[in-house]
Specification:
Rossmann fold, N-(1-d-carboxylethyl)-l-norvaline Dehydrogenase, domain 2, 2 domains, 17 helices, 9% strand, globular
Length: 388
């Protein structure tokens, strides 16, 4: 792919503007479009302020910032992107809306142009069905904020042309990102494997085993996670996190492992969406110092082991179902959501038999299919094997 290829970005929200910044800093001319009046222009003005802050902090020199900003311009219609070699869509997570956009782009772009979606939860194959050339459609899922987060999930659809995934992985790598390639399955790697971090933590809270702050404390101090699940859901937005959980659950035909929680639903219904509303699982409207968390070490170990067993089981099952390679699954979780180590490598530290035992105990205690161990976990435990 030519380094001077023009890149189009559809959607000038946080993600779209971030992707435009990444492409521009990598030397591409970028066209930014948004159907909302002046949204693209506002995004460029915001980006100018962001780059100025980077210059002021010494993280970028003035000339580079000016050059990057100068490479980004707006267009008034999707047809204005007719000369782009790659267009990345970053709009609302609505399949029908995305299909309409892709159908229009398909009509106005050159036959060899690549159409990519930044979707985090919708099927690339379904989006591609709107195009006369579905083989040129692929998923490029960046993580927020796109200029800072290194991971990009590269997702070929059912009919994506052979070699296009490797081609796009090379491109985003040239942009300074870390690509992982995965199947077009619900949640891809990160949003699928990470579900128990939230779901099992909420379940522990609902059972009265520990409070939210205690669970967060346990997973940070004993587990080594940068943020606890309740803190992280408040940061992401409970509406966003709940929507992804619902999407993955429906896409897997209501598999009990992904069942959404009433606790989070009530947060969303009450408008307690997290940091952006000032209230979520925690109250962000006061300046008072956080209270010290008291937590028995044995309980902290129990909480961490239970959540970690569920996370490891998801990672192992993703490997079993060939969602991605073992290396890419671990890379996705460390680079996409900052886990302290890859889950498959983590599984190997204690051994598959240990984690199988934790899950079998939970399944026997609760009698629920949500705790069923992956066949690969059982098989690996049986032979004393490793995942990495």
């Amino acid at each position: 792919m030519e380094p001077k290829m023009k890149v189009g970005v559809v959607g000038a929200g946080t993600m779209g503007a971030g992707i435009a910044q990444v492409a521009a800093q990598a030397g591409h001319e970028v066209l930014l479009f948004d159907a909302r009046q002046d949204a693209a222009g506002a995004a460029i003005r915001n980006l100018s302020a962001t780059l100025e802050k980077l210059v002021a902090k010494g993280k970028m020199d003035h000339a580079r910032a000016e050059e990057a900003l100068g490479r980004i311009s707006t267009c008034a219609a999707l047809s204005g992107m007719k000369d782009c070699g790659l267009v990345v869509e970053a709009i609302v997570e609505d399949l029908e809306v995305k299909k309409r956009v892709f159908a229009e782009l398909d009509r106005c772009l050159a036959a060899d142009a690549i159409l990519a979606s930044n979707t985090s939860s919708l099927a690339i194959t379904a989006i591609a069905a709107a195009c006369s050339r579905p083989e040129r459609v692929i998923g490029l899922h960046f993580f927020n904020p796109a200029p800072l987060m290194p991971l990009v999930e590269v997702v070929p659809g059912m009919v994506t042309a052979n070699g296009l995934a490797a081609h796009c992985a090379g491109l985003v790598q040239a942009w300074g990102k870390v690509p992982v390639t995965c199947k077009d399955t619900p949640g891809f790697i990160v949003n699928r494997v990470a579900r128990p971090f939230y779901g099992e933590s909420i379940r522990i809270f609902e059972e009265g085993i520990a409070g939210m702050a205690q669970i967060d404390h346990a997973l940070k101090t004993t587990g080594g996670f940068r943020m606890g699940p309740f803190e992280l859901m408040d940061l992401i937005g409970n509406d966003v996190n709940f929507a992804v959980t619902n999407s993955v659950w429906r896409a897997f035909f209501h598999d009990p492992r992904y069942t959404p929680s009433l606790t989070q639903q009530r947060q969303v219904e009450s408008g307690r969406l997290g940091r952006k509303t000032g209230h979520g699982y925690y109250d962000y409207g006061t300046a008072s110092a956080p209270q010290e968390v008291q937590l028995d070490e044995q309980l902290a170990q129990h909480i961490t082991e239970r959540v970690l067993a569920m996370l490891i089981n998801e990672a192992v099952d993703a490997l079993f179902l060939r969602v991605a390679s073992a290396e890419d699954i671990d890379l996705a979780m460390t680079k996409g959501v900052n886990y302290p180590k890859g889950l498959l490598a983590w599984a190997d530290e204690r051994g598959a038999a240990h984690w199988l035992g934790v899950l079998e105990h939970l399944q026997a205690e609760y009698g629920e299919d949500r705790y069923r161990p992956s066949p690969l976990l059982r098989g690996t435990a049986k032979v004393g094997g490793r995942f990495r």
